[in-house]
Amino acid sequence: MANGSILVADDDAAIRTVLNQALSRAGYEVRTAGNAATLWRWVTQGEGDLIITDVVMPDENAFDLLPRIKKFRPELPIIVMSAQNTFMTAIRASERGAYEYLPKPFDLKEVLAIVGRALTEPKAQAEKLAANDEVENIPLVGRSSAMQDIYRVLARLMQTDLTVMISGESGTGKELVARALHDYGKRRTGPFVAINMAAIPRDLIESELFGHEKGAFTGAQARSTGRFEQAEGGTLFLDEIGDMPMEAQTRLLRVLQQGEYTTVGGRTPIKTNVRIVAATNKDLKILIQQGLFREDLFFRLNVVPIRLPPLRERAEDVPDLVRHFFALAEREGLPQKQIDAAALDRMKRYRWPGNVRELENLIRRLAALYPQDVITANIVETELAEPSVISGEEERGGLPDEIGPAVERFLSNYFGQYGEALPPPGLYHRILREIEQPLLGAALAATRGNQIRAAELLGLNRNTLRKKIRDLDLRVIRNAR
To answer: What are the coiled-coil residue ranges (predicted)?
Structure first.
């Protein structure tokens, strides 16, 4: 007996064949169609336990067909496929009642897993959002596999109030994701309130979050509302949550546990109804080990973790982002620009230590400062070249830039030397050796050649340090202080 009956609709015969073969081998009964009309006829005849359909069909868009199917057979799970791998495709699939969204090209193992899950654990019907066919300001751009995973998670979260923790380097778009969760979720009619923990003096964070009463502290001449009260019925975005002081963490945990808070200087509990979305560019688990972040608060906030990849991990999205930012610049009154393929290739090879924010700033600069209609690779190379200016701090013998950005710049230039080719194999160990040698040398110099103290300073076992000294052929000179 078949595991279930599946209706496949796609105008691409090759995709129909591949899905038919894979699903049939897995024990499913499969019927395939090349248009929406045939699929609709089968649905009205009561056929099929599950539908897999492409969005773009020759006779009708699947997003127009889905509401009719869900109205006629609300229990029928529908998996939507699309080559238009954008954020809004995933959102519209969720809005129309799709069980799952699959970007093309897809992995057949993933298809089989989703089909099995859909047939054995039917998804409860969520409240549908109002349809909106024309969305001008799409908040997220990119069609890479990394972004597709994020789109799918966001689509599942839209009809929930689950607390979300967004992690990622600076400039990756954490607030954009938080706004997307709000603007396309069920709290979209409520306020979106953002607060950056790193931008507020530590002794004022509790007052900013919860408000204060008149006379609560010196300078509190009137009652002030806090961000929780301002976000009532909507979403509160807690940016850079890793910079929140311990006292405020304790009060925030109490709010999440009890659903109420008191103002600074107040005594009457105030009920709260907000969705919490937090973000950080730090590793909170390390902060927990250092005693700087409460572990119980972390678990309360980290209900649904979302990691935003740095731009260097999704370089294939650079062309879409470049076109998007040029279009935004043009709408703001800057000259229209085109960019040639070589310039895009150079941008894709760049490491982008500042991520999407750095790319956006570059595009605005290119649109504003260069008279050429077409931006070439030479122009991009000039903009991405490292300035040779030495900061006043370095001239005085102070600390240079942090090591991370410095390594990023080195690697960007290093890869750029090889153009379309790649450097020789063994890059990982070459880079580690180049960093390790001056690090160990500096530690040994600081401890006057005392290997026991140097090992303690570095956090290494003494035997490990001795082996590294031999392997790196380091010269150790012992001096008395």
So the answer is: none
